[in-house]
Amino acid sequence: MITVAIVDDNRLVREALAAMLGRLPDVRVIAGASANAEVLDPVTPDVLLLDAGLGDEDSLNVAAAITKRRSGTKVVIMDLMPTNEDIVQFVNAGVAGFVLKDATFDEFVATIRAVAAGDKVLPPRMTETLFSQIALGGDGRGRERVLEDVRMTRREREVIELIGEGLSNKEIAQRLNIAAHTVKSHVRNVMEKLALHTRLQIAAFARRDGSA
Q: How many whole angstroms separate alpha carbon 92 and alpha carbon 4?
């Protein structure tokens, strides 16, 4: 059984979502307009669905406080379409996931179950813009930090640097003494990890903030 708390100051949204989730055999729902003791203390929720735009509270501070004081509660932010800056701030505050308010009910349920199981969830529509921004340094972090966060391997780092120098796959293969198809595989992995789509984007990333 997954205990889900819903904190949203829009009564219609809160009650409708609680009613739908309450029909599920593996979900128990508690709900309120704010993240106060009345909502959270009777039973420590496994998952807290938190509206990003609470009128009387700062949702970011609420999320940070809950993740710090209630380690057993995973916070999922509900929003229409948060900005990249908002996403980064909530992630740094320790939230476990996001769900868009125009998501289907099945997407809400899948997010709740995944987060309760220990996963981190970011909707596909948000993933590309967020990680492209991070990869290109839009959140103010250095390139080295990005490479560490996405677990870039030593060989993938070398490929990034050589693409930054303008080398082709064939030239990279010769420089690193590896097969051309291996280089293609590394390039594909780099693009996937950094949410980039072209060699030009990789080259632009390679030239940021000095060497990796």
A: 22
pLDDT (0 to 100) of residue 203: 81
Asked if 47 contacts 4 with a C-beta cutoff of 8 angstroms, the reply is yes
pLDDT score of 40: 62
CA 38 to centroid of chain Cα atoms? 29
> What was the pLDDT predicted at 1?
87
Query: Taking the chain, what is the end-to-end CA distance rounded to the nearest angstrom?
Result: 46
Domain at 2-122, CATH homologous superfamily: Response regulator (3.40.50.2300)
Q: 71 near 45, Cβ under 8 Å?
A: no
Mean pLDDT of 2-10: 88
Mean pLDDT of 119-146: 60
Domain layout of the chain by residue ranges: 2-122, 131-206
The amino acid at 46: D
